[in-house]
Amino acid sequence: MLPEGTLQDRVAIITGGGTGLGKAMALEFSRLGARLVLASRNQDNLRRAAAEIEARGGEALVVTVDVRHPEQVDHMVQAALDRFGRIDILVNNAAGNFVCPAEELTVNGWNAVVNIVLHGTFYCTRAVARHWIRQGRGGSILNILATYAWTGGPGTVHSAAAKAGVLAMTRTLAVEWAARGIRVNAIAPGPVDGTGAAPQLWPTEEARQAVLASIPLGRMGRPEEIAHAAAYLVSDYASFITGEVLTMDGGQWLGRGVFQGARRGGKGS
Ligand code: NAP
Q1: CATH code for position 177
Q2: Could you give the CA distance from residue 193 to residue 214 in angstroms, rounded to a whole number?
Q3: Among 115, 141, 150, 195, which residue has the most ligand 1 atoms within 8 Å of its CB, making it the best to mutate?
Q4: What is the per-residue pLDDT for 198?
Q5: Is the pTM of this model over 0.85?
Q6: Nearest residue by C-alpha to atom 6 in ligand 1
Q7: 210 within some domain
Q8: Which segments of 186-264 does DSSP mark as H helices, in order?
Q9: Which ranges of the chain have pLDDT less than 70?
Q10: What pLDDT was estimated at residue 199?
């Protein structure tokens, strides 16, 4: 665990910060001293997360935003600046997903996911980076991907295609904005329990067992494990890291194609 004070007085916007991994990151960043901007569509979730942060002595601003709309994203950035006067960190975590065979996927379904994940990430990234560039100061961006950004994701072509776009965005902007002092990194989680994705992606016990069998470490990830790594990547401890993708999947994607017998005994702690 990083020491308290690691993110002292940094201001972090986390999209989708009211639930799942976004909330776990918000709580961890707050423990480390950051002030939070929690941004998504559902005020109730955001308020509950903000109340949890405040109950622990932290500070969190709640901003309602649909990242699919650039003007709402601009408003989110302005609201953060009005309250805190600065932004240091952006975490592009908001996403939507559902399992659907590609041939049955509607245009609406495709657009909904691509607009949130790919376009929304770009709108947020552009709005925050424009502010930094105008101010002549740098910052840190963290994009939350999924390993199927490069393995492919049968059953979730919309999400896999969008995440692949965000992976390309991560690497592209890491170079394009390096001279501006802006770092851009990503985390690619595998299956994580206790999140919004869980009931969408492994809705039955049978599906859950099939997912578990595919993970060499023999268990799902925990939201706080993602949060610890996220805090490291946005902190000064990672000041020489940019354009990197940290895979956190218990070995799942590397284990594809391993003979079943070789996996036996793989149990995580
Ligand atoms: P989650 O709890 O459902 O989080 C998704 C968040 O995105 C919600 O807080 C939601 O808030 C927000 N959101 C959705 N549409 C939005 C929009 N149009 N504008 C603004 N906010 C929007 O799921 P999660 O599992 O924690 O997922 C977090 C991230 O991790 C996602 O990027 C996901 O792809 C990635 N990931 C998760 C797993 C996993 O196993 N959990 C694995 C790989 C990758 P509102 O409903 O309030 O808008």
Answers
A1: 3.40.50.720
A2: 15
A3: 195
A4: 82
A5: yes
A6: 16
A7: yes
A8: 197-201, 205-213, 223-234, 260-263
A9: 258-269
A10: 82
Q: Is residue 216 part of a domain?
A: yes
pLDDT at 265: 52
Domain count, the chain: 1
> Which token pair is 237?
């401890």
Question: 82 is in which domain, residue-wise?
Answer: 11-246
Tell which residue, 88, 93, 85, 87, has the closest CA to residue 65: 93
Closest ligand 1 atom number to CA of residue 97? 34
222 falls within a domain: yes
CB distance 27 to ligand 1 below 6 Å? no
Q: Which of 14, 21, 64, 141 to mutate to test the pocket of ligand 1 (most atoms within 8 A of CB)?
A: 21
96 lines ligand 1 (CB under 6 A): yes
pLDDT tens digits, 165-212: 999 999 999 999 999 999 999 999 999 998 888 888 888 999 999 999
237 given a catalytic annotation: no
pLDDT at 257: 72
Residue 196 and residue 198: Cα distance in Å, rounded? 5
